[in-house]
């Protein structure tokens, strides 16, 4: 008879989940016993970093990530990163060890007393199998739930004595059959719904298209670009842009909408139909009250997420596959007659200011970084106060090329960049991150160095939480403590983790360091660049 461990490993093999991100404790060792050679274990030094690396891995590879944490304390450490993964719609199976079943009732040391409650509501499903024989089938079920739109993390609590338990042949085969199941998630819209939506687009005097993260995540990029070009609509990105979902160099592209109610509606003034694809309506913060839409405007949302459609405060919704719906609309919409029509002009790039307070301006630094990065770079960003300047400089125009947490919590960037490079080893990965954000997941530098992961980390150092200073102005909270973080020596810290590190003192040097790091591909490189602070306008 085979063991639960062997059955579990075969379930994971069947799903292609042979990379495990973890930080082991005593309750996890039985699962990891005699770890097979066809699996890869990626060690992180703290659980939030482990989940962040798995997040980047899943998003970059288009696969479901596997995580192993240490019972209740490890799950607690990872909760912020799990919340980010939920916001990012990342398919992920998070497992945590549990005390032996014989000592659960007495809550012996390291017992997770309510294991299915702890990770909620950050996960789609939380479960502790009632018997050892149920571990492998539960794992197979968890993968299916994680991969069902809207994708997201699931959680399994696994008692440590289950893995050496024997399973009979029929139970083993049943788990294998469950793991081998194929579930396709491609709900096509009804013909009448497509016709009505096409008629609304065709009859609108001034429609506008807004794209969100799921356009890129669902593989609908080309179809949405074709739809935009067929209709000639101006295109905006939805607020909280975790992925780039439309070419930023395209002449129809207008920018990122502000994440507040009244300013967003102001940007859409003059449009009578707002068509939102692959985004919530809308992700608002801070609170600036007003009308959700301009006077006289209507809204239609196309989403794969029924809950997202239900919670929208305004407009109609179609719940269906994005690419299939875009293609169906193309079949109903006539091509535009562009003869003699004025074509939209591409947005002009802003000229970067050279210095702020003696240091590079954020835009000058971003321009220098973009100049040194290869054309096929996969960008990871966690410099929220400089995000506008980043997009201005990079003008990302290919799918699958940008990752930024949609959840608003820090700690994603450094770890996700390591996972992204492991998930897409054929692409150079450049992580642009603030000095404050770096320290939410700084232990990821050790993993990058130890596994020789060739990520280029560029740290924009302004010795403050600049985005919070912006919020302090907006919320009239001047004088709040804890917004300055002087005395950080990023170069020395990186060197202590084994990462080759440099400090760039000018734009030309920064460009050269980024170019050289991308070419060498022998392991991680960190570049620290002091920048001045340019807070966005209120």
Q: What does it look like?
A:
This protein is an alpha/beta fold and 538 residues long. It is built from 20 helices and 22 strands. The strands form 5 sheets. A 6-stranded parallel beta sheet has the order 3-2-4-5-7-6. Helix 4 (71-87) links the parallel strand 4 and strand 5 (92-98). Helix 7 (191-203) packs across helix 12 (322-332), helix 9 (221-231) packs parallel to helix 12 and helix 13 packs parallel to helix 14 (387-394). The chain is globular, with a radius of gyration of 24 Å. The mean pLDDT is 93.
Estimate the helix proportion, in percent: 25-40%
Question: Largest sheet, described in full?
Answer: 6 strands, parallel
**What's the tally of helices?**
20
Evaluate the radius of gyration: 24 Å
The neighbouring-strand order within the major sheet is 3-2-4-5-7-6
Give the CA-based shape: globular
Q: Structural class of the helix and strand makeup?
A: alpha/beta
Strand content: 15-25%
Q: Spans with pLDDT under 50 lasting ≥5 residues?
A: none
Task: Give the N-terminus to C-terminus distance in angstroms.
Answer: 67 Å
Overall average residue pLDDT: 93
Number of E-state strands: 22
